[in-house]
Amino acid sequence: MSNRPRVQKSRRGSQPPDSVPDADNNKNTRLRGLIIGVLVLLVVAVGVAALAGRDAEQIEQSDVAQVSDVSIEGVPLPRFEGEEPDPAMEMRAPAFAATSFDGTEVSVLPGDGTARVIGFFAHWCPHCQRELPRIADWLANNQLPAGVEVIAVSTAVDSGAGNYPPSAWFEDEQWPATVVRDSADAEIGEAYGLRGFPYTVAVDSAGRVVARVSGEMNDDAWEFLLNFVAP
Length: 231
Prior knowledge:
This protein is an alpha/beta fold and 231 residues long. Helix content is 35%, strand content 18%. It has a 5-stranded mixed β-sheet with strand order 6-5-4-7-8, with helices on one face. The chain has a 3-stranded antiparallel β-sheet with strand order 1-2-3. It is globular and about 40 Å long.
């Protein structure tokens, strides 16, 4: 059955025939108004649902601890100032134990036969926001040299800064390698001589520091570093 108003088929003796189309037009106008109103409500409802979904994700992420206790053993590396030669070269890198965002315990023991490239990232740092997805993409599409492991350290967390929480950031960027949480005082970063972001330290299989880099790296520099540290 049609929902269209049947005005044209009704006749009122007191109403002139030429007034019927006006009534029809008025009702059609009201009908169009109702349809537009319903569509607007639907759009608003979809928008509210989307916002609710994002709020739910944020609430879920807020339940994840963004920092955690860590333990560190060994002599801290000197603060990286970019001078040549780097005083940290050939030093034994500190060992540390930390946890991932899901609470998995991770132990990094330099000198255990595995070479490592350790990247330090701050969620609010625009340079980190460019480098992390680039490295994630590289790791997803390339194979690491044999005997080399990549570890990301989420550090310098600030709940009042942008791109918070870092757990959601790493998840959104589909980071495929190990990521651990630094402490609220950035103790791992301090032990590795962190100065600015992003910051990368390459440690060979014997546990010696062989390179430190402050700032973004392009793919060529990244690949060179991985091959340089490989056993």
